TrEMBL record:
Ranges in coiled-coil conformation: none
Cofactors that this protein relies on: Mg(2+)
Gene3D superfamilies per the UniProt record, alphabetical: Farnesyl Diphosphate Synthase
Taxon lineage: Eukaryota, Viridiplantae, Streptophyta, Embryophyta, Tracheophyta
Molecular function terms, GO-annotated: metal ion binding; transferase activity
Metal-binding found in the keyword field: yes
Protein name per UniProt: Farnesyl pyrophosphate synthase 1
Tagged with keyword Metal-binding: yes
Alphabetical GO biological process terms: isoprenoid biosynthetic process
PROSITE patterns documented for this protein: POLYPRENYL_SYNTHASE_1, POLYPRENYL_SYNTHASE_2
Family designation: Belongs to the FPP/GGPP synthase family.
Keywords, comma-separated and alphabetical: Isoprene biosynthesis, Magnesium, Metal-binding, Transferase
């Protein structure tokens, strides 16, 4: 059972991991394709490398949310299996995005290992692997949800969220175009737009929307829930931007490069707001440069204007605002779902 701060019990996590093996084996025996040993081996290696390796937060959130929506009723084995399956569909979607993102960003590592496309035998075959990952979602949904009254809604949901995420990625990519580096176009509004579409929908709204559909709810009646979750997604990304610069690399598992990469980070946007003209000049000269000396100058400026304090204030205000939005919701079960999400991310260090 998910407790109030939203951690998943070990037995549900265990059950969740067991479902991955079932789904993988079904996909490796999909009768729509004539398999060979080589093709089976490739897909299995590709899946194991890219799908189950993360924190699994998004996938586990579906089971946690569904359980809270059922207000503590014991879930049947079938319900746990179906909620886990939808959770894994989100993890498959995430894997598809990340495999392609790493190629677009020319990244080297992901989750502490080389990016999939960096493996000698993989290279640009990773593009096709991404397409296959996306198609696996449709295969899984068809096999397990075809007869459900909410099947079409599930398909629509995954399609729409994928479109929103890809569109968010597009804004992000065209904003950081090489040769068009212009800090003056960065604003809180742009930051919000990128985050809302690139992260908010698939990381925060999608898991809860899946649970609501399974519980027989119509998503049109839950626009308020979507809005709170998108808000939470933005708060989460601001934390990410903060940790990229000020977090402990040991804890977050990666070394931040937002400054070097000229990212439209919440920190640089806030810095532009708080700076005097002299400080602005420093930012314009040093932001987005790969040299470590430039990064040091940007970080020193961040300290001069007390961005840590600005962030602490933002964090407290966001928490209060989100809490009052959640408490305005008429359903106690939905409140519990939203509070469990907020409990997972408030004041996180990684």
């Amino acid at each position: 059972m998910a407790n109030q701060n939203g951690t998943t019990s070990p037995d549900l996590r265990e059950a969740f991991l067991g479902v991955y093996s079932v789904l993988k084996s079904e996909l490796l025996n999909d009768t729509a394709f004539e398999w060979t040993d080589d093709s089976r081996q490739w897909i299995e290696r590709m899946l194991d490398y890219n799908v189950p390796g993360g924190k699994l937060n998004r996938g586990l959130s579906v089971i946690d949310s569904y359980k809270l929506l059922k207000e503590g009723k014991e879930l049947t084995e079938d319900e746990v299996f179906l909620a886990s399956t939808l959770g894994w569909c989100i993890e498959w979607l995430q894997a598809y995005f990340l495999v392609h993102d790493d190629i677009m960003d020319n990244s080297h590592t992901r989750r502490g290992q080389p990016c999939w496309f960096r493996l000698p035998k993989v290279g640009l075959i990773a593009l096709n692997d991404g397409i296959i990952l996306r198609n696996h979602i449709a295969r899984i949904l068809k096999k397990h949800f075809r007869e459900k009254p909410y099947y079409v809604d599930l398909i629509d949901l995954f399609n729409e969220v994928e479109f929103q995420t890809a569109s968010g990625q597009m804004i992000d990519l065209i904003t950081t175009l090489e040769g068009e580096k212009d800090l003056s176009k960065y604003s809180l509004q742009l930051h919000r737009r990128i985050v809302q579409y690139k992260t908010g929908y698939y990381s925060f709204y999608l898991p809860v929307a899946c649970a609501l559909l399974m519980a027989g709810e119509n998503l049109d009646n839950h626009v308020a829930v979507r809005n709170v979750l998108i808000d939470m997604g933005i708060y989460f990304q601001v934390q990410d931007d903060y940790l990229d610069c000020f977090g402990d690399p040991e804890k977050i598992g990666k070394i931040g490069t937002d400054i070097e990469d000229f990212k439209c980070s919440w920190l640089v946007v806030k810095a532009l707001e708080c700076c005097n003209e002299e400080q602005k000049k420093i930012l314009f000269v040093h932001y987005g440069k790969a040299d470590a000396a430039d990064v040091v100058k940007v970080k020193a400026l961040y300290n001069d204007i007390d961005l840590k304090g600005v962030f602490a204030e933002y964090e407290n205000k966001s928490y209060e605002r989100l809490t009052s939005s959640i408490e305005a919701h008429p359903s106690k079960a939905v409140q519990a779902v939203l509070k469990s999400f907020l409990g997972k991310i408030y004041k996180r260090q990684k």
